[in-house]
Write a structure and sequence with these properties.
heterodimer; A: 231 residues; mainly alpha; MetI-like fold; 10 helices; B: 229 residues; 11 helices
Chain lengths: 231, 229
C-alpha cells in the first residue's frame, strides 16, 4: 500500500479531470440528442436525412475510431491552416480534453437521439393539441410542453447513456489526456505495480458510476412524484 | 491538405487484413460471454444467496468500469503476481490476444446476463401457470416455455450489445494487436492521412454493423413467427 499513497493526489486531480470531461461531454451529448430527435421528428426532409445519417454513422463506428478521427484529423487540418500563416509551425492540435469530449459526445449523442425520439413519441398527443389550442407556437410547445414530459420517459435510458459516456472517458487517455488511466500508466513505470495501479482506476470508475446510478434513481423518483401522490 | 478519395479505396484492402482478427475477437468473446452470461443468470435466479451474491457483484463490477480499464488490469496488471505467471492460465494471459478475449468475454458476460434477465422477466406468468396445469415439471417449463419466449424478448437488446462488442474490439489496438483499427493506426503513422484511413476503417465497421443488424432482424422475425399473422 505504501506505493499507492504517494500517488493519491495525482489520482484525485485526474479523477477531477474525468468529472470535468464527463460534464462537458454530457452537455454536448444532450444538446445533440435533443437537436437530433427534433430533426428526426420534424417534417423537413433535409433535417430528417441529416439526423438519420448522423445516427447511422455514429452508432456504427467504434468510439475509438471517432476519437482518433476527431483528434488527428483536426490536428492535421489546423496544422495546415497554421502553416499558411507561419511555415515554422510544426504541430497544432485541439486540446485532448475538448477533442475527447466532442468525440464521445458525438457518439453518445447519436444514442440519445434515439432515446429522446422514442420518449417524444410517448408524450400524449392531446398535450400538444392542448398547447396549440392555447395558442403556443411550435417552439414554445417544444420547450414548455413536450420536453418536460418527454424527460420523465427518457430518464432510465438517459441514465444508461450517462454511464456509458462516463466509461468512454477512459479512452481519452489514448490521445494523451492526463486522466486516471494516464496516471496509472505513469505510476506503473515508477512503482512496477501495474495491478495495484490499474485496480485503483477501476475502483474510482466504480465509485463514479455508483454515484451516477444513485443520482439517476433519485431523479427518476423526482420526475415521477406526481404519479406516486395520486395513489 | 486535400482529401484523397483514391487513398480511401486503396487502404480498404490493407485494412481488410485486420478484419480476420476483429472477427475472431468478436465471435470468440461473444460465444464465451454468452456461456458466462447464462451461468451468471442461473446463479442470480437460483434463489440461493451464496450463488446470487457473487453473480451480482460480478455484474456490478464489470458494468461499472470501462472495458479499457478491464483490459489494462488483465494485460498489464495480472503479470504482477507470480502466482499467475506460474499457473496454467499464463499461456493465455501472456498473449495480448488472450487477454483481450478474456476481458471482452467477462464484459459481455456481465451485460448479456442482465439482458437475458430482462427477457426472462418479460415472460407472461400465465404461460408458466398453463405449463403447470399441463403437468410439466419445472425444468420442462423452463426449457420449453420460458427460454424460447425470453430469447425472443431479449433479441433487440442483445443485438445492440453485439454491436457494442464489435466496437469494443477496436480497443485491441491499445494492447498492440493489429485488428482493423490497429492496422488503420499503423497506416496513418506511415502516410499521415488520418481522415482518409480512419474514415475507410469506419466505413468497414459500419458495413459490419449493418450486417449484424440485418442478421438479428431476420432471427427476431423467425423467433416471432407465431406472434405476427
Amino acid at each position: 500500500m505504501g506505493d499507492v499513497v504517494g500517488w493519491l493526489d495525482d489520482y484525485f486531480w485526474a479523477a477531477m479531470v474525468v468529472v470535468r470531461v464527463f460534464a462537458a461531454s454530457l452537455v454536448m451529448a444532450t444538446l445533440l440528442g435533443l437537436i437530433g430527435s427534433a430533426a428526426k421528428l420534424s417534417k423537413i426532409r433535409i433535417a430528417n436525412g441529416i439526423a438519420n445519417a448522423y445516427t447511422v454513422v455514429f452508432r456504427g463506428t467504434p468510439e475509438m475510431l471517432v476519437l482518433l478521427i476527431i483528434y488527428f484529423g483536426s490536428a492535421i487540418t489546423l496544422t495546415t491552416i497554421a502553416q499558411i500563416f507561419d511555415p515554422e509551425i510544426k504541430f497544432v492540435d485541439i486540446p485532448p480534453f475538448w477533442a475527447g469530449a466532442l468525440a464521445i459526445a458525438l457518439v453518445v449523442g447519436s444514442y440519445m437521439t434515439e432515446t429522446f425520439r422514442g420518449a417524444f413519441l410517448g408524450v400524449d398527443p392531446g398535450q400538444v393539441e392542448a398547447a396549440r389550442a392555447l395558442g403556443l407556437s411550435n417552439f414554445q410547445t417544444f420547450i414548455y410542453v413536450r420536453t418536460p414530459q418527454m424527460w420523465r420517459l427518457a430518464l432510465p435510458n438517459f441514465g444508461n447513456h450517462m454511464l456509458s459516456l462516463m466509461k468512454d472517458t477512459a479512452l481519452i487517455s489514448v490521445i494523451g489526456l492526463e486522466e486516471i488511466v494516464f496516471v496509472a500508466e505513469m505510476a506503473t513505470t515508477v512503482t512496477l505495480k501495474p495491478f495495484t495501479m490499474y485496480f485503483i482506476v477501476a475502483l474510482i470508475y466504480l465509485a463514479i458510476s455508483t454515484v451516477i446510478t444513485l443520482t439517476v434513481a433519485g431523479l427518476e423518483k423526482y420526475a415521477n412524484r406526481h404519479l406516486e401522490s395520486g395513489r | 491538405m486535400s482529401f484523397d478519395i483514391a487513398l480511401v479505396f486503396d487502404s480498404i484492402p490493407k485494412m481488410l487484413e485486420g478484419i480476420g482478427l476483429t472477427l475472431e475477437l468478436l465471435f470468440l468473446s461473444t460465444s464465451i460471454g454468452l456461456i458466462l452470461a447464462v451461468i451468471t443468470l442461473l446463479m442470480r435466479i437460483s434463489g440461493r444467496r451464496f450463488l446470487a451474491w457473487p453473480a451480482m457483484a460480478y455484474i456490478y463490477v464489470f458494468r461499472g468500469t470501462p472495458i479499457l480499464v478491464q483490459i489494462f488490469v488483465i494485460y498489464y496488471g495480472l503479470p504482477q503476481f507470480d502466482l499467475i505467471r506460474e499457473s496454467i492460465f499464463w499461456a493465455i494471459l501472456r498473449e495480448p490476444f488472450g487477454c483481450m478475449v478474456v476481458a471482452l468475454s467477462l464484459n459481455a458476460g456481465a451485460y448479456v446476463s442482465e439482458i437475458l434477465r430482462g427477457g426472462l422477466l418479460g415472460v407472461d406468468r400465465g404461460l408458466h401457470e398453463a405449463g403447470k396445469a399441463l403437468g410439466m415439471s419445472t425444468p420442462q417449463r423452463f426449457i420449453y416455455i420460458t427460454t424460447p419466449i425470453a430469447v425472443r424478448l431479449a433479441i433487440p437488446a442483445y443485438s445492440n450489445d453485439f454491436i457494442s462488442m464489435l466496437k469494443a474490439t477496436a480497443l485491441a489496438s491499445t494492447v498492440t494487436l493489429l485488428d482493423m483499427t490497429g492496422v488503420a493506426r499503423t497506416i496513418v503513422a506511415k502516410t499521415f492521412a488520418p481522415y482518409e484511413i480512419f474514415i475507410a476503417a469506419a466505413m468497414i465497421y459500419m458495413v459490419m454493423t449493418w450486417f449484424i443488424q440485418r442478421g438479428f432482424g431476420l432471427f427476431e422475425r423467425r423467433m416471432s413467427r407465431y406472434v405476427k399473422p
